[in-house]
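Example 3.
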Amino acid sequence: MARWEPDARGRLLRTAVDLFFEQGYDATTTAQIAERAGLTKTTLFRLFPDKREILFQGQGTLIDLAVEAVARAVPGSPAIDVVAAAISAMTDAHVADHSSSQRLAGLIAASPELRERAAFKRSSIAGALQTALLERLGSARRAGLLADVGVRAYYDGFDRWIAADGDRSLTAVVLDELAECEADLRELVLGTRTHPVPQRA
Amino acid sequence: MARWEPDARGRLLRTAVDLFFEQGYDATTTAQIAERAGLTKTTLFRLFPDKREILFQGQGTLIDLAVEAVARAVPGSPAIDVVAAAISAMTDAHVADHSSSQRLAGLIAASPELRERAAFKRSSIAGALQTALLERLGSARRAGLLADVGVRAYYDGFDRWIAADGDRSLTAVVLDELAECEADLRELVLGTRTHPVPQRA
DNA sequence: ACGGTGATGTTACCGAGTCACATCATCGAG
DNA sequence: CTCGATGATGTGACTCGGTAACATCACCGT
């Protein structure tokens, strides 16, 4: 399949990340990215629907993975386990190494435009997860609440993983975060007073 | 303060809604909106940071209202009550009538670009609410989880209000939704077992 | 009446994104 | 080995969102 220089998408992604780091997202032109990648603006927009999406490729796959994991989950298992299966399916598919992920997260955090796209992705994942959970729970409200918890655990866990040294696996950190969420939720709902919570040992 | 024709922002908003309904969001030009409102493109972009924001003006105020409500809440009151105060502060400030809100919701749902902005607004509200709650709860995780629940109750309640006849007040519907969320959350966290819903093999 | 001030208009410009059309590299059939 | 089909890429022109510098106009107080 590969003709000319292979992996045009990957080249564009790497080039874009480099340029965004050098000059900032806004100051970098799509024509600039394409040129340094040995392509043209037209080809860039053939491969990506827009400039932001260069950094978010593959997030559509995330949704599919989560939804499939929910569909594959054992019927009758606790809802929280189904959520855990869904989000660990996403983390397992995470290919970028720790430092690349750090770079990417820094870029996104620095640009409102990219943060907006990130929020959209997050809400898309939450929506898809809710729909998938709905078939099991029968209640849209419960499915939505659970999806929120799962997505929060995924993103907050991801942030913890980013901030850490990268020794622990992403999946472990995220599943740990989910367990913490469940515990906190239980205490919140039971009306217990706030007390020192055992953070990670 | 008002010179020339007054309320340029309001005129632009109404004109934009009309045009978006007639032609769709994408097919409507900012110059078109400005012209029909008796202004020019430049003035439009002086009053709104971008085209999408025409439909979302005032959402920044929503955040302030929620945050202030949290700050004003009685110390020591249950966390869920603080959340209720925050979201009812937002609904109380809702000025648009039922049918206008329906139109606006339909427009936003029809355009991916507008849905993305809506997701960003929602995440911004959730973030601000989490920060406000953090001072009371001491735990960022609990604050985030509670903020998610509150924001979900707000949006899902809003949708229910939109879909209904508009007899009940928005605040009543949203607070009812929040109560339902709390109840569902309690059941989810206690005997969490998936309902006997017919699974597909 | 007049001058200051703020809101608006004019003009020109840049960059994202689209489109129609041309080109070129590869592969398979003969 | 040649040649045509195919699909990826390039070219050039275009629209539209958004910005900026400068000019203009309406109101207000003096």
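The radius of gyration of chain A is 19 Å. Chain A touches chain B at residues 75-80, 82, 115-117, 119-120, 122-124, 135-139, 141-142, 144-146, 148-149, 152, 156, 180-182, 184-191, 194, 197 (CB under 8 Å).
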